[in-house]
Specification:
- By secondary structure, the protein is α/β, with parallel strands linked by helices.
- The chain has a single domain, classed as Alpha-Beta Barrel (TIM Barrel).
- Helix content is about 45%, strand content about 15%.
- It is built from 11 helices and 8 strands.
- Strands 1-2-3-4-5-6-7-8 form an 8-stranded parallel beta barrel, surrounded by 6 helices.
- Helix 3 links the parallel strand 3 and strand 4.
- The radius of gyration is 17 Å and the shape is globular.
- The termini are close together.
- Bound molecules: 2-phosphoglycolic acid (PGA).
- 2-phosphoglycolic acid binds next to strand 8.
């Protein structure tokens, strides 16, 4: 794989002090120019992290955004605001947002359109619950999630979207999908995108796997043909394990 992205989703963890502490520790490690790393802290830590990581090749991303630029949307943050502070990535449709905050495929679509307009890379999360997998319906669910999320997106913009396959039963549970399961679904997603747009587009999509990724299991997952990186929750909170994940990626790219 010539590109491997490690994206660390901090979820609702770390205050300002914890963020500064993390940044100081991660800066002690040496990264290569080709390492692709992105940290996705809570909104309140974005500017702090951006400033602390100035001069490194670690990028920052947001966990969510609103699809309008501004307006009467109490409690929301727009992609325009994120852009202003140098955010380069934004998660869209994380399963926790779908489950607890009513995120739908339709709102994901609107957010992707807006983020692309602003030049921020959307990281679209798709994935199935355990009962769906047990019923053998995971591919049809993911087809629906992808089909609706990409409505009206211009062909030229499609490869700018990163897709993260995150089986919900593997998130925060310590229960990782096997490398074979992760590869099978990533290949399915690539094939689906080829069918929806073109083979060339399908081939160049960045597809991440997420769900209990840690240094101990990352190598086998990241070496799969159709996997271009990982969306990492728990293990990204610790600078050492984040760094180890980046080193594993660098090794696999050699
Ligand atoms: P986890 O979270 O690595 O803690 O399972 C992944 C995610 O939700 O993005």
């Amino acid at each position: 794989m010539d590109r491997i992205l490690i994206a660390g989703n901090w979820k609702m963890n770390k205050d300002a002090k914890g963020t500064i502490d993390f940044a100081k520790k991660i800066k002690k490690y040496s990264f290569n120019e080709g390492d692709e790393v992105c940290l996705i802290p809570p909104f309140t830590d974005l500017k702090i992290l951006k400033d602390e990581l100035d001069g490194t090749n670690i990028k920052i991303g947001a966990q969510n955004c609103h699809f309008e630029d501004n307006g009467a949307y109490t409690g929301e943050i727009s992609s325009e605001m994120l852009k202003e502070i140098g955010v380069e990535f934004c998660i869209v449709g994380h399963s926790e947002r779908r489950e607890y905050f009513g995120e739908t495929d339709k709102s994901c679509n609107k957010k992707i359109i807006k983020l692309l307009e602003k030049g921020i890379t959307p990281i679209l999360c798709v994935g199935e619950k355990e009962d769906i997998r047990e019923a053998g319906a995971e591919q049809s669910l993911i087809s629906k999630q992808l089909g609706e999320a990409f409505i009206g997106i211009k062909q030229a913009d499609v490869p700018k979207v990163i897709i993260a396959y995150e089986p919900i039963w593997a998130i925060g549970t310590g229960k990782t999908a096997t490398p074979e399961q992760a590869q099978e679904m990533s290949a399915f997603i690539r094939g689906f995108m080829s069918g929806l747009f073109s083979e060339a587009i399908g081939e160049c999509m960045m597809i991440l796997y997420g769900g209990s990724v840690k240094p101990e299991n990352a190598r086998d997952i990241l070496r799969q043909r159709d996997i271009n990186g990982a969306l990492v929750g728990g293990a990204s909170l610790d600078p050492k394990s984040l760094y180890e994940l980046v080193k594993i990626s660098a090794d696999l790219k050699k």
